[in-house]
Amino acid sequence: MSDPRKGVVLLSGGLDSATILAAAIDEGFDCYCLSFEYGQRHNTELAFARRLASRLGAIEHRVAQIDLKVFGGSALTDKNLQVPDFNEQSGSIPITYVPARNTVFLSFALAWAEVLGALDVFIGVNAVDYSGYPDCRPEFIQAFESMANLATRRGVEGQKLEIHAPLLQLSKGEIISKGLALGVDYAETVSCYQLDTVGAACGRCDSCGLRREGFAAAGVNDPTLYQAADRD
Amino acid sequence: MSDPRKGVVLLSGGLDSATILAAAIDEGFDCYCLSFEYGQRHNTELAFARRLASRLGAIEHRVAQIDLKVFGGSALTDKNLQVPDFNEQSGSIPITYVPARNTVFLSFALAWAEVLGALDVFIGVNAVDYSGYPDCRPEFIQAFESMANLATRRGVEGQKLEIHAPLLQLSKGEIISKGLALGVDYAETVSCYQLDTVGAACGRCDSCGLRREGFAAAGVNDPTLYQAADRD
């Protein structure tokens, strides 16, 4: 039996996914949040995800253990590769790209949706202020949705599974404005690829750079705790 | 850099995937085999996969640890659910279906292909003598391939990633005949969902039933070791 009120939300603990969780709850969905322990160097984000799920009012939060480190190839999962600074990189796909990560994450969300009877999956990808990852583009999300409807029991039974990516066409500043209107406390989110042990952001990586620009564009205070060298 | 000789092969240790590995090697591919420890009750199959990769001449074999048990919902990953006997089930999707399993497996294969620079992924799904799983159908494979070409670095760069499912339209008997011609020793493969501790097959589950019928249809001896009750 499917339940149209249930939604599976991919929750990283970051600014974007906190916003989609708040928006999905605001739309009336009962939200089941999914995070991944995938060998990321920034796995402090899982503690942020757990707290966000609770504060924003999700029904449940699960963390799936998956092994993406087994393949290497990304600075986010391979400690021998260095995370580049914001604006330091070329125009091509950066080294922080984790191969097929959103495909893998959405596949797991699809599996849980099948078991829950949910027909709606939410992902916080963004095609405006993003890092040039191929799996953050609208055409990828559409193709995944088409595939998902052929992959699963509900699809075979003629029900329509929908992949929601409500931030796809928003700038970082617009995302922040939207989340603030929904009551998101962005001090409880984390974007940095290389947080230190007390949870302070490096202020230098691509993800910190986009986040800083976003708060500036939204015209609001950036509540992020940055490491000392960047707070002067 | 992509390398057109490299192929990623999803290898379960079963009859179908052993056949596609032999066929891909016969076509000249350097094969990188991928298996999963996903909480399956029949994880003896991983030892079979390791041996098959070595015997058939794969370049490498990796086992990715992933957590599909976290969602439950299948008799293959939930020990509280019973595996039904062959022909015991209704015409609908059986309880041994693991939600979105092939989507998850292909997503991981895609990740490894990206890192390796491979443009070819092989999967042993079969739409003739199969168990009615939605993710074993040709339209699913095609949709996954379309999505994969939008999800990845190679796709963005204009290279074409191909999902090969060469058994899609073959009967189990035809698969066995094909494999025998390629030198596959099917005594080294396992199909059973509930092997006992010495590696003998139950002879009763859906997967054993399809395997037995396949050897009969191919007109060759079935080399499978079945449990005593079924050998009389």
Question: What would you say this structure looks like, in words?
Answer:
The structure is a homodimer of 232-residue chains. Chain A has helices at residues 15-26, 45-56, 101-116, 138-151, 153-156, 172-181, 206-218, and strands at 6-10, 30-37, 60-65, 120-122, 162-164. The first copy, chain A, has seven helices and five strands. Chain A has a single domain (6-191), classed as Rossmann fold (3-Layer(aba) Sandwich). In chain A, helix 2 (45-56) links the parallel strand 2 (30-37) and strand 3 (60-65). Chain A is of the alpha/beta class and 232 residues long. In chain A, strands 3-2-1-4-5 form a five-stranded parallel beta sheet, with helices on both faces. The A-B interface holds A 62, 64-68, 70-73, 93, 97-104, 107-108, 110-112, 114-115, 134-135, 137, 139-140, 143-144, 146-148, 150-153, 155-156 and B 62, 64-68, 70-73, 93, 97-104, 107-108, 110-112, 114-115, 134-135, 137, 139-140, 143-144, 146-148, 150-153, 155-156.
